[in-house]
Structure formats: C-alpha cells, structure tokens
Design goal:
Length: 785
C-alpha cells in the first residue's frame, strides 16, 4: 500500500493494519507482508479481532459495511450492510454477536444477524450515546465489557450496560497552572475499575470509584511534554503504555506510583499502541507510516515501514539502478521504495542531523533532488529558514558506492547561489555528467567534476563550470535535450536555448504570453520539439529546427511529465475543482488518451515508471502504457493510472476493480471506452481461496473457455427452420423472435454498449457461421497433457 493511516491489532504471530480500502496482514517474525484483505470500496476506518474467534477480524469502512474475515487465509466470510459511513468499531467478549460502531457523533450497538448468506443487511441498531468524540482513541470498553467509557472535549462519560445509565465527569478547561485538560485518548484496565485518560498537556489521569458517581477520584502522572496520543493496558493489567509526539514509548507500572520505563527514538510521533493477547509483543504505529514491533522486555525486534507520507517537497523520481521510487521520507531523508514489491527499501540521510520532533522548530529539509541518467550521481538541496534573510541551504553531490550499495556524500557546496535554488537537472548524456541549477538570484550554473590544472585528469569533486543569466530576469525552469546537445532555461516569459559545449546562447523563444512554468524536451522521434506551459494557461510546442511555434492550446496545466522510454507526454489539467489527464505526442496536438476527472485535487508530482517487461496486445488507446506506468501524487495517496486493455483472462478472474474505487473518482475509463463486465462472485471467491483447496486446472480451463462462448439459448427452434430453406427463413416470424431474443442476450452481456440491429443478409450470414461445428473445442478442453 502506498497510502492510508496505520492501525494495529493484536495477535501473537500477525500484525493487522488498515491501508486505504484494504487491511494488510504482516508477520511479526519476518516483518514481511503476507496478504491483503480486499473487498471494501472506501477507506477502512477500523479493525477489531472477533472475541469469539481470534483467527477472525472485523473491519468497518466509510462504504457503510462491516466485513468479517479469516485473516490467516485472507478469506471474506461475511459482509454486514449498515448503510451509514462508519468511523470506528469496538467489540467485547461480553456482547456476543454485537459490534459497536461509530456513526457520525453516535455510538451505536449493531446486532449482527445470523444468516447463511454471505451478504446480509443489519437492521437492528440501537444508540448507546450521542456524544462521541470523532477520535476513535477516546472510546474503550472496561471490566470485560461491563461498561464503556468515552471522552469528548472536557467530559468523561461512563455507560453501564446493566444499569443502562451514563455517569459524567467534567474537568475545567485549564487548571491553576494553565495546563490544558482536554481529553485526547482513553484506556480501561482489563480487570480493575480503573480508567486511564490522556490529555492535551501531556498528563495521564487514573480514574477510580466512578461506579459511585459522587465518590470518584483520580490521580495524575506526568511525563509527556505534549499531548498524549495513545494509551494501552497490557493484557494482565500490570503495565500502562503511552505514546505521543516525542516518539518515546513509556511503560508505567500499574499500582506502583510513578515508576516507568522508556523506549526512545522510535521515529515519527506515536499514534497508536497495541499489545498482543499474551502480552509478549507490543506494536506502535507512527506518523511516518511505520509500525514498530517491540518485545515485552522493551527491545525493538522488527520494523514495518510503509511509504512515508509527510510533506513531499522533491519531485517523484526513479532511481535508474534499483528502479525504486525516490522522494522525501522521514525528516531530513530520502526514501527508496520498491513499487514492484510494495516495500520500503531504505532511507538515505541527507541532512545528517538529529531531527527534533517539536512543533515550531526551524530545521533543515530536503527540498530538491535529481539523479543522473546512469544512477551514479545524486544531487540534493537542503534548506531551512522561511524568510530569505534567514535562508540557509546546501547543494550536495552523492556518488553511488558499489561496496555499500548506497550513496555516499562526495561534495558539499555551501554557497552554490546567493538565493534559493528553484530547480536543477542532470544532462542526459552517458558520456559526460553535468548538473545545472537555477536560482532566484537570476543565474543558472553548470556544475562538472573538477579537472586538475596540471594533469588535466578528472578529480573526484564537483565545481562550477559556467554561470549564465539573461537580462537580469529570474529563471523559472531548465531542461536538457535527449542527447544533451541543448539546454533550455526559461527566464520569466522567455525561453533561452544554450549549447553546453560552448555555452553560446543559440536562440530565444518568446512568442506566447505568460511566465514559463514547465519545460520538457520531446523524446526519440519527437526530440526536435520543446514543450512548455505558462501562467496564462497555454500549452505550447516549439519546433527547434525552425525555432517557430508548432502549435499551442489553451489549457491550465498543473504538471507536465514526459515518458523517458517513449515520445509520450502527460499533462494534468486542473479546472472546475477536478483534474483531467491528457497524454499526447509533441508532433500531434490531438491527445492519444484522455482521462476526465482523475481526482478532485491539483496534481503537482508525477512520474513515469518503466515496466520490467513491455506489455503486448494492448488496445490502441492503451498503447501509451505498454512501456511505462504513470504514477501521480495526490494529497492523500500515491495513485497509479494503468488503463490497459482488459484481456479475457483478466475478466474471468475478476481481478480488475472499478477505478473510481481506486482513485475515488466517479469515472476512470475514457468517455469513448465501454466498461468491461465485472467478474462473477464465484470467481471472486475463487481468487480468495487457498491454492491447496482449488479444483484441478483442467476444470478452471473449461470454465474459462465456457465464459468466452456466446450463449445461444432460445435459438434451437429457429435452427431447425434454417436447415429447411433460406427463403422460408426470411419470412419466418419465429425466426425474427429468435433474432430479437439473441439481441436481448447480447445486450445483457454488455454494460454500456447497445447492439445495433442487423440487416436480414447479415442475420443470414451470422446463422451460417453458427452452423459450424465447434465440438472439437470440447475435445481439447477434456484432453489431458
């Protein structure tokens, strides 16, 4: 998964966490991803182990359903339709057959009906409370399900199921020392009548005697300097675990006053903590999309790292060596993430300073990065300081070390420019390596490996080779041609073309109005073209042989991205509160592919990812994807646009899912492409069945071939008439009915297409074809190799 906030559930051998519209299952021993529980059509918002069977798990989703899974084999057991968006789920051993759901601001008890059907509607709902916090961590069951505690703002509520009464306890907004008392999380002791609550000021309160409303007491413990994000009692109740922004897991010994242990430097802020049912393992989930597996001895024994989803300041890049996706990772780092394996590979420490997890501190961040074409060099820019007068930045060059299989720092340039670096790019040539940077100081600089003045041999360091400018204008972007013979640098409304060999200004292009935003040279057969976008919502194509404008069109392009393996260029256009995708070749202004309403956000980051093997037999509208896949970044997730042709095997196995589920958009297919029929429920279940219980492959093959054959039910009567006379066939009323029946059947097999009426001659020819004996197919199907 490339998105979604992690939640952790407990089981001795497995870690379960939500990830977008699925639940991922990991091994606590190997840290490997085992499989995903897929079936929801919207964000999964909560998971809870089935108290009656700890090999099963409930999941709830914003799609309004609760699903019960066998998470060992990854099989969906049952779906309960609630009909409302769900935000959290809670279960209790004392309430068998009942789940408690967070719907809006209500906590609702739902009786799960017992039914043999796999999908059933749950109609029996009863409200427990209408004052629930939107934070799921502020609700918990206590004393084996005898009561449920929930906190909101400054009030703690305890609902007793036997009494059917709610007791409320309030705090003042601030105490005498000005501390903030709002509740942030809650946990109940498994055996004692004790409720632990976390607060905004970092305090933890232990509430007792709340069964007698007027005699309640609480004690206070304090270590966290900021809000407590999560609390969890161990299964025996001997310890209380807490975590927050400090990224330190604190273990408080229950009933011993203020005795505690610490496990520091776990990464991002701790968002959630969970304990295994035997108390031997703890898991923490973090703001940097990471799960840490911890032994009860307070020793880290495993880390499961997802795609870090903090602010992305760099472009999306592909490492030419590992083919990994590279972008901002944890603070001060670049992360290398394998899209093929859906696995985090490693972090590269760029800033090389300890990051302090405290709001308001001005710390160095990686803002720019670029690879050379061979993946031997990596350039990075790190900076801090919101105001130009306080700006600090460094340009660093990293070389790839074959021995360590990672990048090592080669050169640090402390004064690369006098103002912020806007953009940079490496030359495309494999013979010589050159880096060009442009900055707000009005200059662009070319950097090369230094040459010793005496020996004229390359030295293992980088230095400035050329400084260029144009009429004191501020540069906006830069790009090398495919063969690196030309360098394009845009200055406000002017594009300048330079020769990197002589640094001669060859020509300028300045016809369309508007400041230049993106620059992109064509590839392969379109290498003579230069594409640009402007702030006046113009997409322009320049012919560099004639130095003339080849074509232009009025469209607001938020991101322009070229495919390094083909002539294709992708343009994301944001208008009317949604983004459209256009794919085109520079030599043809008409798009090859149009995808309306890709998402509702503006796209600023995108990248073409080369395939391991090119796809064959794609339909014409998907040819642009046969060598690469297009990934783009929205605010919440990394999305893949892979609108390839749907093959018969793809349909049979029902692997494809409607892309609006994947992209959260009403439509994914281009307007001129008919939707393909969905796979059957039977085949979907077959997909989720373990291999050792599947039928032989020959049976599956028979099913596949049968699915390709067009049903001719209702034509048996007319076939006898065909054998008599073609002339009678034309006037036969019964045959016309059969023809209508056939058209109905064909319409039922299509989703959006309307089958056109055939002429009588075409109908006659079609019936001749149907007379052909296809029984030889059955022999092939039944024959064994």
């Amino acid at each position: 998964s490339l998105n979604g906030k992690y939640k952790v559930q407990r089981h001795g051998l497995f870690v379960l966490c939500t990830s977008g519209d699925s639940v991922k299952v990991y091994s606590t021993r190997t840290e490997e991803w085992l499989h995903s529980l897929q079936g929801h059509t919207n964000q999964v918002t909560g998971i809870a182990l089935n108290p009656a069977n700890h090999l099963q798990v409930y999941s709830c989703s914003a799609d309004g359903t609760v699903k019960l899974w066998d998470f060992i084999d990854g099989i969906l057991i049952k779906t309960f339709i609630i009909g409302y968006p769900l935000f959290a789920i809670y279960v209790s051993e004392k309430h068998e057959g009942i789940v408690f759901l967070h719907i809006g601001f209500q906590l609702v008890a739902v009786h799960l009906p017992k039914s043999a059907e796999q999908e059933v509607e749950a109609k029996e709902l009863s409200a427990v409370s209408s004052h629930i916090s939107p934070n799921p961590s502020c609700t918990a069951f206590g004393r084996e399900g005898q009561y449920i505690a929930f906190a909101r703002n400054l009030q703690l509520n305890v609902y007793f199921f036997r009494k059917q009464k709610t007791y409320s306890f309030s705090l003042k907004a601030t105490d005498k020392k000005g501390a903030k008392n709002a509740f942030t999380c809650i946990a109940c002791h498994p055996t004692d009548d004790c409720i632990a609550t976390g607060h905004e000021d970092g305090k933890i309160r232990l509430w007792r005697n709340f069964i007698h409303k007027k005699e309640y007491t609480y004690s206070t413990q304090h270590w966290h300097h900021n809000a407590v994000n999560t609390l969890c009692f161990t299964p025996e109740g001997t310890n209380l675990l807490s975590g927050g922004i400090e990224s330190v897991l604190v273990q408080w010994q229950y009933g011993t006053g203020n005795r505690k242990e610490f496990l520091p430097r776990l990464g991002g802020s701790i968002l959630h903590v969970s304990a295994s049912s035997d108390g031997q393992l703890f898991c923490t989930s973090h703001s940097d999309n990471k799960i840490t597996v911890i032994e009860s001895s307070f020793k880290v024994c495993g880390v499961i790292q997802g795609l870090v989803k903090d602010a992305v300041l760099t472009d999306l890049m592909i490492d030419p060596r590992s083919k990994a996706l590279v972008l901002n990772g944890k603070p001060g780092h670049l992360q290398f993430y394998s899209l093929l394996r859906d696995k985090h590979l490693y972090n590269l420490d760029i800033v090389q300073q300890e990051y302090i997890y405290e709001a308001g501190l001005d710390q160095f961040e990686v803002v720019k990065a670029a690879f050379d074409i061979k993946g031997y060099w990596l350039a990075t820019v790190e900076e801090r300081g919101q105001k130009s007068s306080d700006l600090e930045f460094f340009l660093k060059l990293w070389s790839y070390d074959e021995r360590t299989q990672s990048f090592v720092l080669n050169t640090t340039i402390t004064a690369a420019h006098t103002d912020r670096i806007i953009s940079m790019c490496f030359s495309s040539s494999e013979e010589t390596t050159m880096l060009v940077t442009i900055a707000e100081d009005g200059q662009f600089k070319a950097w090369c490996q230094g040459v010793d003045a005496d020996t004229q041999q390359d030295q293992n360091f980088w230095s400035c080779d050329f400084v260029g400018s144009y009429h004191n204008l501020k540069p906006t972007n830069c790009s090398f041609s495919a063969d690196s013979s030309l360098l394009a640098v845009s200055f406000q409304e002017v594009i300048t073309i330079w020769s990197p060999d002589t640094w001669e200004l060859l020509t300028t292009l300045c016809q369309p109005p508007g400041v230049i935003r993106d620059l992109c040279f064509g590839r392969l057969s379109c290498s003579k073209y230069l594409i640009s976008t402007t702030t006046r919502n113009l997409l322009c194509c320049w012919n560099l042989l004639t130095c003339a404008l080849e074509w232009s069109t009025s469209v607001e392009v938020s991101k322009l991205q070229s495919d390094p393996l083909s002539e294709n260029v992708a343009a994301f256009s944001y208008q009317s509160k949604h983004t459209d995708l256009f794919v085109f070749k520079p030599n043809e202004p008409r798009p090859l592919f149009t995808h309306k309403n890709v998402c509702s956000e503006k796209i600023h980051r995108a990248v073409f990812v080369p395939r391991e093997e090119p796809l064959n037999n794609c339909d014409e509208s998907s040819q642009w994807l046969n060598r690469s896949q297009l990934y783009f970044l929205t605010q919440n997730m990394l999305v893949i646009d892979d609108s390839v042709a749907v093959t018969p095997f793809y349909l049979l196995l029902g692997k494809h899912r409607q892309q609006q589920q994947k992209l959260n958009t009403p439509s994914h297919q281009a307007a001129d492409r008919p939707q393909q029929p969905q796979g059957s429920v039977t085949i979907t279940e077959l997909l989720h069945t373990p291999a050792h219980v599947l039928p032989p492959a020959s049976v599956l093959c028979s099913m596949f071939v049968s699915s390709l054959l067009i049903s001719n039910t209702g034509e048996m009567e007319s076939s006898e008439q065909e054998m008599n006379s073609e002339k009678e066939e034309e006037d036969s009323e019964g045959e016309m009915e059969a023809c209508d029946s056939q058209q109905e059947l064909r319409a039922q097999g299509s989703v959006d297409e309307v089958t056109p009426k055939l002429s009588k001659a075409q109908e006659r020819e079609l019936k001749r074809v149907r007379k052909t004996d296809f029984s030889w197919m059955a022999g092939l199907i039944d024959s064994k190799p």
